[in-house]
Amino acid sequence: MATHQAQVIALILGEQFGESAQIVASTLLSKGRLPLSQLITQTGLPPKQVREALFVLIQHNIVSYTEAPEGLRVVVHYSVNALQVLLRDRFPEYIRIAKLRFGEKAQHIIAEILKHGKCTFLHLQQALYPMESTPPDILDEFEDAFNTLIEQNFVVRVGDDDSVNVLDRKVSEEAAEVAKNPNMSASEKTKMKKALEAKSKGVEFEDMPTGMKRKLVYSFEEGDAKAAKVYDEDENMAERAYWRINPSRFHIHCRNEVLTALAESRINTSAKHLLNAILTYGEPSMKHCKADEVSAPITLTHLGSDTTFDKSLLTYNPSTPRASLQDYLALLTLDQDFPFLTKQDERGGGQYVCNLLSLKTALHQHLITTYLQEKFGIVASRIWRLLHTKGKLDEKQVAKLALISNKVAREKLYEMLNVGLIQLQDVPKTVDHAPSRTFFLWYVSLPKCVDAMILETYHMLSNLKIRRLKEYNANGALIEKIERSDIQEDESLLTDGERKGVEKFHKVMNMIRISEIRLDRALLILRDF
């Protein structure tokens, strides 16, 4: 694991869970998975403190475990899910999305689940509505909001193996599939692995029983006892089942927001509303940001008859909605830099899909070129686009095509090479690889550039978190004073210097928070799309 990524994880855990959990998780990250005895030795903490930290981290889906037989005994090994820690900075965004899509009750449900990691339906009900005199209609609205979150997979039931290590779960699933068919061919094994990979990306939540809906059971004379048993199990599942959020569904919503905002910046607000209608129509079939290549196909006729889409938002030609739809669909299709739509067929006035994979690549390129322009200048950004378009070029060809001198081209190429955003390929003329008899070609590998950008983003994010921690430590006495009850009731007790210090502190904190949000949005595009 990269140093800056591990540092960000440690800072997040220290802020939210304290020093003990930070030490335990950092030890598991650096040493790999460990049993409890070795973990106690490595951390130097008391056994009780280590057990409590593990309990809290497992409850919040951060630590997973694996039971491995060693001789006559079973040893439990613990490991950390780094992604679950990094996603904790995105919790306010999840709460905002829940309120935007489903209302305040869904917002409170998501906030309560995030607070506890996983919890039961009864716990949610008692935490949000502790009074026994709560009106029944309020409780019905709460249950409807909870059912809606489950139906759309924003909240999923915790499975029996959710706390098991991902790799161990994958190995055991593959072994179970092979045991069912020992004579499985190589192609069948490939299909089986792809199916399991799709299952691990959220598709498994489709058929998972929830217990929130009652099954319709017909009673026959010979099956009354069996039917009653099934009904009782289904009725009690809501009380026994634990629930957690499904980040993939929230990321799909975030991706759609990014794409519609991009359409607005490239064209206008009407194009944003049209693209939003297309993505909303295809959202039920979307499973995971990394797995979706195109959205569900939609026709011009369907868009014209869609009652949820307000045609008056198309300002180009409001008197003829169908013509306006055709014009905006053509604009979204013909954009060469960001190919939003592709026309697949002529049925229904034209069948269109949103190019999710192509847009992801275009967004990656846009982020990289913007970063290069800000850090190394517009010439570096031009050279990177040139190499990405033309392929492998030597230094003289780069200088000639970019209309710059060889000296400037060499400087910019090595600056970008040092940060990993371009690569160098040597082509020797002879077998001895002598530099004087070797061609050196520069090229761009987009996956390697994305990885380098992710590491650089972690570096910037760790610097911001360290700066925020230093600001809190430097202004500790002032923070304690403004949190006193008498100061909160009467701010005139503060001196002029203290008021200015408080104002400066809040200004710095807001700037750091805004920068963290922007970096998290960049990570969303680079890592989670």
From TrEMBL:
Keywords associated with the record: DNA-directed RNA polymerase, Nucleus, Transcription
A Gene Ontology term for the protein's cellular component: RNA polymerase III complex
Coiled-coil parts of chain: none
Name this protein carries in UniProt: DNA-directed RNA polymerase III subunit RPC3
An annotated GO BP: DNA-templated transcription
SUPFAM superfamilies: Winged helix' DNA-binding domain
Quaternary structure and interacting proteins, as annotated: Component of the RNA polymerase III (Pol III) complex consisting of 17 subunits.
Localisation: Nucleus
Keyword Disulfide bond: no
Residue intervals of the DNA-directed RNA polymerase III subunit RPC3 winged-helix domain: 368-444
Segments forming domain RNA polymerase III subunit RPC82-related helix-turn-helix: 10-67
Keyword Nucleus: yes
Record function comment: DNA-dependent RNA polymerase catalyzes the transcription of DNA into RNA using the four ribonucleoside triphosphates as substrates. Specific core component of RNA polymerase III which synthesizes small RNAs, such as 5S rRNA and tRNAs.
Pfam family, one: HTH_9
Lineage of the organism: Eukaryota, Fungi, Fungi incertae sedis, Chytridiomycota, Chytridiomycota incertae sedis
GO molecular function: single-stranded DNA binding
Top-level taxon of the source organism: Eukaryota
PANTHER family in UniProt: DNA-DIRECTED RNA POLYMERASE III SUBUNIT RPC3, RNA POLYMERASE III DNA DIRECTED -RELATED
Alphabetized Gene3D superfamilies for the sequence: 6.10.140.1450, Winged helix-like DNA-binding domain superfamily/Winged helix DNA-binding domain (1.10.10.10)
Family: Belongs to the RNA polymerase beta chain family.
Domain RNA polymerase III Rpc82 C -terminal intervals: 145-357
